[in-house]
Amino acid sequence: MTIDERVLGGLWGAVVGDALGVPVEFKGREARRRDPVTGMRGYGTFNVPPGTWSDDSSLLLCTVEALIDGFDLKRIADLFTRWFYKAHWTPEGLVFDVGNATRESIERLARGTSPEQAGAADERSNGNGSLMRILPVALRFAQSPPDELLEYLHFASCLTHRHPRSQMACGFYGLMVAGLLEGKNPADAYRHAVHSLATLCNESPYKNELSHFDRILNGNLAELDESDIRSGGYVIDTLEASIWCLLTTSSFTEAVLKAVNLGDDTDTTGCVTGGLAGIWYGLSAVREDWLSAIARRGDIGELFARYLHSCNENRG
């Protein structure tokens, strides 16, 4: 499988996973057991048509657009602000389902706070709002040395989530992306990320956070039962759930549906899982009926083509 097919699989997989989860967000796991998501549905929680994506994909798409011209936090910040205040990269001109930490960070950006300092750094500000949008940065710099990759990911997280735990979650996800992109199977990509994070985050402030990653770093995440997997908005929960869904399934469809049917923060768990699964299984594994339902599919496709061209030139 070509790198291009894996990159597009990851990007489209994330948007599709998000859209699958939007109609059932905030509904618990028991509700999903009674009425499991099996395909693209609409309305529900936010009363929006099938194929509508949330703030997760909006911020991911803003990041994709910014990275076409290289890595510039100010450019990413400007596009985030444009999304929040002017509905840039929204499905239908409506901004909805914005997390508090993301909202407050963008408001600080609008008041002139530097991008590096915009995200809150207190321990309570460890929602999944940077993890859900970090994929384009990981894909763009996946072939960089691991320490450089982590630096890009940490900087990008700081726009909305500056606590070291959120930065490290983005870093671990990016290390898995790098492994999958080079053709490592999910189990090997997971082991690669475990080894790399433990090696690269061995100094303060990151070393002090390693205990929060114990369940991931012990290498046995796939052995956990579903009852042990949490699917709320905490960044560690989302990271664990997305990796677990990838490791315990054997197709793109199975992975994203398993993620969404965990319940609660369904759009983000679906988005983060869809990114990983899309890279491993490739664009051809993403169901055409799901892709055809995605709002603004043509606009997104053109954006991804420009991004891919830029990535290939950068790899050059």
Brief digest:
This protein is an all-alpha fold. It has one domain (8-315): ADP-ribosylglycohydrolase fold, CATH 1.10.4080.10.
Keywords:
ADP-ribosylglycohydrolase fold; mainly alpha; 316 residues
Question: What is the percentage of strand-forming residues?
Answer: under 5%
Structural class: mainly alpha
The biggest beta sheet reads: none
CATH architecture: Orthogonal Bundle
Describe the global form: globular
- Report how far apart the termini are: 19 Å
Radius of gyration: 17 Å
What is the CATH superfamily? ADP-ribosylation/Crystallin J1
How many DSSP helices?
A: 16
Total domain units: 1
Oligomer: single chain
pLDDT < 50 stretches: none
What does this structure look like?
The protein starts with a helix and ends with a helix. The chain has a single domain (8-315), classed as ADP-ribosylglycohydrolase fold (Orthogonal Bundle), CATH 1.10.4080.10. The protein is globular. It is built from 16 helices and no strands. With 316 residues, it is mainly α. It is 59% helix and 0% strand.
